[in-house]
Amino acid sequence: MANTGSAPVRGAKRSAESVWSMGMGRVSGIPIRLHFTFLVLLGWLAVSGPLTGLLFVVGVFICVVLHELGHSIVAQKYGIGVAEIVLYPIGGVARLEKLPEPKQEVWIALAGPAVNVVLAVILFAALIATHSPIPWGDFFGPGGGLLQRLLFANLMLCGFNLIPAFPMDGGRVLRAILAINLGELRGTEIAAAVGQVLAIILIFVALWQQMAFLVFIGVFVYLGAGQEANMYRGRALVEGVPVHKATITDFRMLSPGASLGEAAELLLKTSQQDFPVVNGDEAIGILTRNSLLRGLAEEGKTGYVTRWMDREFLTVSPDLDLASIAADMQSGQQTCALVMRDGELLGIVTLENLAELLLVRQATKDV
Ligand SMILES: [Zn+2]
Questions:
Q1: How many CB atoms lie within 10 A of CB 124?
Q2: Are 351 and 335 in contact (CB under 8 A)?
Q3: Rounded CA gap, 135 and 367, in Å?
Q4: How confident is the model at residue 292, as a pLDDT?
Q5: What separation in Å is there between the alpha carbon of 113 and the centre of ligand 1?
């Protein structure tokens, strides 16, 4: 376990969205998961629609997976791990394990739509080969054959994703280019603002045209822009700040034999919410406030902390850049990281004190 390399060690903790999804296998080491809402859509099509409807959705699904794999494989080329690809009815998400640098992001973001262009060209060639010439009149209509509709879907996927609304691919490219020229903070602010304005326009147009699906996408883009901008903002504010600056060195630990009652007492007596569980010199887990409360509700005060602690946790070296763990902690995947050097526990970094550090830096830094 406790591995104190130069990079943060990631636990296998699953994010909130993956809980509602089903594994579909791995490509290039990346787990591909289907969100349950996508399964509902497929099931509904299977029972209600004609077979071609189902085949079309499965075809689009494959194109979306290939689009996300485009992002993922370029990310991997830059040494950025991909935690998973999750498919939702409105599209896919490739979850990168860390935020890419702006120059890398341009290529990672462009790789997805580029895949759709390649697929469109292949489908076009297949159409020409099978029944040329294509009747242009119903090219975009619902009357076309499966290949034709898939070609149209790929053009839509490419075009729609290139709209410069952060956090869509086009918006990411815009943010990265602005970040290269104006700095991370200014670039992110402008891209997020452009994304939110475009999202609001989209929502109004969709309401006016009574297209519920587009309203949904507009809201998704609006919320996503704010959320992702926060992650980039956070990273820009802590860039170059070593982990030890945000480390709490005065903290309480639990022994593996401790009961949940003892842990609850510490929670009430101190301002600490997450407690490292240490066996002798070795950190074996973290008991977070949420796990503690869950444990208390199920087992009462006599339960043991070892049953409820997280055995997969984030460990970082004190000299590492805070930026490398800020995104993880801000996205809520980890609420606490252990700061370790040569197997020795030096302190903890928690979400609360990271947030406080961000506030202090925002207040004092000229941005
Ligand atoms: Zn994309």
A1: 16
A2: yes
A3: 56
A4: 92
A5: 6
CB 114 within 8 A of CB 70: yes
Residue length of the chain: 367
Mapping DSSP onto H, E and C, the string for the chain reads CCCCCCCCECCCCCCHHHHHEEEEEEECCEEEEEEHHHHHHHHHHHHHCCHHHHHHHHHHHHHHHHHHHHHHHHHHHCCCCEEEEEEECCEEEEEECCCCCHHHHHHHHHHHHHHHHHHHHHHHHHHHHHHCCCCHHHCCCCCCCHHHHHHHHHHHHHHHHCCCCCCCHHHHHHHHHHHHHHCHHHHHHHHHHHHHHHHHHHHHHHHHCCCHHHHHHHHHHHHHHHHHHHHHHHHHHHCCCEHHHHCECCCCCECCCCEHHHHHHHHHHCCCCCEEEEECCEEEEEECHHHHHHHHHHHCCCCEHHHHCECCCEEECCCCECHHHHHHHHCCCCCEEEEEECCEEEEEEEHHHHHHHHHHHHHHCCC
Q: What distance in angstroms lies between residue 109's CA and the mean position of ligand 1's atoms?
A: 6
User: Would you say 34 and 87 are in contact if contact means Cβ atoms under 8 Å apart?
Assistant: yes
Could you tell me the strand order of the sheet in which 21-27 lies? 21-27, 30-35, 82-88, 91-96
Higher pLDDT, 331 or 342: 342
**Under a CB-based contact definition with an 8 Å cutoff, are residues 11 and 283 in contact?**
no
Q: What's this model's pTM, rounded to 2 decimal places?
A: 0.68
The model's pLDDT over 114-148, given as tens digits with 9 standing for 90+, comes to 999 999 999 988 888 886 556 666 655 555 677 88
Q: 3 C-alpha vs ligand 1 centroid, how far in Å?
A: 33
Distance CA 145, CA 134 (A): 10
Using CA atoms, how far apart are residues 307 and 168, in angstroms rounded to an integer? 41
d(CA 39, ligand 1 centre) in Å: 21
The CA 83 to ligand 1 mean position distance, Å, reads 16
Give Cα 44 distance to the centre of its chain: 28
